[in-house]
Amino acid sequence: MKQKGLPVLFAVASFFLIITCSISLPIYCRPFYYWHIDLLNLDRFGYSAAQIKDAYNEILDYLTLPGGTFRAGDFPFTASGASHFADCKVLFTLNAVLLLLSAAAVLILLMIKKRGHLTSLQIGCFHAGFYAAVTALLLVVLLMILASMDFYAAFVTFHSIFFPGKENWILNYRTDPIINVMPQDFFMHCAMLIGGSIIVISLIIIAVSIRSTTQNKKNAPPSPQR
After folding, report:
1. Any idea what DSSP says for residue 179?
2. Which residues, in sequence order, are CB contacts of 95 under 8 Å at separation 6+?
3. Is residue 222 in some structural domain?
4. What's the CA gap between 170 and 16, in Å, rounded?
5. Contact residues for 24 (Cβ-Cβ < 8 A; gap 6+)
6. I need a labelling partner for 217 at 20 to 30 A (CA). Which of 59, 150, 166, 200 fits?
7. DSSP classification of residue 118
8. In a domain, 217, yes or no
9. Taken in order 105, 111, 112, 118, is the CA torsion positive or negative?
10. Residue 107 domain-assigned?
């Protein structure tokens, strides 16, 4: 690949790194869910906080670790419910793979640049990361505006897109009671955490890029006068 294509690759990798890193926050930060047990009074459904935590840990182990068999602690579940979590495992794995690949691409390109084998990661006036951050910021702001209008509709649309043609994500609380302790409010807070993380990371990258560009212009030698 020619050098002029590497900044574009860096921008694409940075975009996916911002998105996947933010998505990973509520996935791998399990205390975020534990906090909701008391916040949403989830033990009112007949299971203790310890039972709920154990079930959540088993589910997350299944979703984030290779292989394994679906289990949900003391919560009973149907084959349909288990199949939905199998579908979720595919998405969790995809996010993890994209996170690792994008992080590796960003680090490798930065190392190439540091060693002098790549003259610049600029695209136009700004660093390639600037465009990745702006794209991620605009995307999440648009999605947050749409979700704020009707989160339930956004929730259904999300499942329709990522689980096309399937209805196993509509769990019956009588036969798959785990859905009681993983309510819509929890997923709304997950979306807020992901969106907030994308916004913060993007704004930091944008601010650093603008400052770096401004500093480079100040330090640039004056153009020779004719």
Report:
1. G
2. 20, 23, 24, 27
3. no
4. 29
5. 95, 96, 99
6. 200
7. S
8. no
9. positive
10. yes
Give 106-148 pLDDT, tens digit per residue.
999 998 877 776 667 778 778 889 999 999 999 999 999 988 8
In this structure, of 34-38, 89-93, 115-119, the range with the lowest mean pLDDT score is 115-119
Encode pLDDT of 145-163 as tens digits: 988 889 989 999 999 999 9
Query: How far is Cα 175 from Cα 212, in angstroms, rounded to an integer?
Result: 57
Q: Where are the alpha helices (H) located in the chain, listed in sequence order?
A: 6-28, 31-39, 49-64, 79-114, 128-149, 151-162, 184-219
Nearest one of 123, 91, 129 to 12, comparing CA atoms: 129
Q: Is residue 31 within 8 Å of 38, Cβ to Cβ?
A: no
> DSSP letters of 121-170?
-EETTEEHHHHHHHHHHHHHHHHHHHHHH-HHHHHHHHHHHHSTT--TTS
Beta bridge partners of 122: 127
Handedness of CA 170, 175, 176, 177 (dihedral sign): positive
Q: How many structural domains comprise the chain?
A: 1
| The dihedral formed by the CA atoms of 30, 34, 35 and 38, expressed in degrees to the nearest 10 | 170
What range does the domain containing 100 cover?
3-212
> The tokens 């182990």 sit on which residue?
61
